[in-house]
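Translate sequence into structure tokens.
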Amino acid sequence: MSKPEKQTPWACVIGDPIGHSLSPLLHQTWIQETGISGNYSAVKINSAQFLGSLLEYFADSHFVGANITLPHKQAALDLADIVSPLAQKVGAANFLYRADGKIQADNTDVHGFLEPLLRILHRPNLTKKRAQVFGSGGAARAVLIGLQQAGIEQVLLCNRTDKKVKLLSEDLGFSNLECLPWALRNDPSYSPDLVINAGSAGMTGFEKLDVDLGFCHDNTLVYDLVYKPLVTPLLALAQEKGLKTIGGLDMLVSQAKPCFERLFGAKVPLDSQAADRALAQLQQQGTT
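Result follows.
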């Protein structure tokens, strides 16, 4: 696969599949709003071509970096000359960029997850909260590390495959992390303050997350990292029950901002319309 022809500083998001990505819309909007010279696109690259294509891209002096999404986040670590401590801890990189003549890897998913959460639940309040997290992959790992950084009191980790939960828990070694068997996912005795879907369940084309939210109390906050559809089955159920919610679009925007600023050297405008444009596109897709 040949690289895109660019004469200005350019970046991209790389994944397989990639057609659903809203990252180009966000970054192109910020480029327009800041008036800088730049270009950002989506590129589909399979696993066999990932390493060679990225090395070719970084050989281009106009290429400033890339956001990395599934299934390449772990492979991105192997490509980098320098890996940030956070990316090492998460075990995945969603961001590769050029600095000091070297390819550097970082992870902004932890920041992207925490920023919307801390707008609602301020950090001091989280120290007395219990979270129930669904998932066992890279996104779940970023969520668990983010919750630890925020000082969460206790985390219950649950996934359809109990063995994966146990392995992730053992790998992280957090003392306040407890494995919750899938069979007990709806047990009302746990009554978490925060419920987080960090898996693919509920995403367009996937089965919904099989939980009833009957284990929540009136002030439980439900956070779904999935952003397509805009209102996932989990969020719809939470809203029916009158619970506060956070959708995946908030995380997407939050993780993209520091990437844009590092790639193009410009601050995202406070009055940016990028999130509104992404929201409008998701709403339009939901009606077609």
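Note: The chain is about 40% helix and 20% strand.
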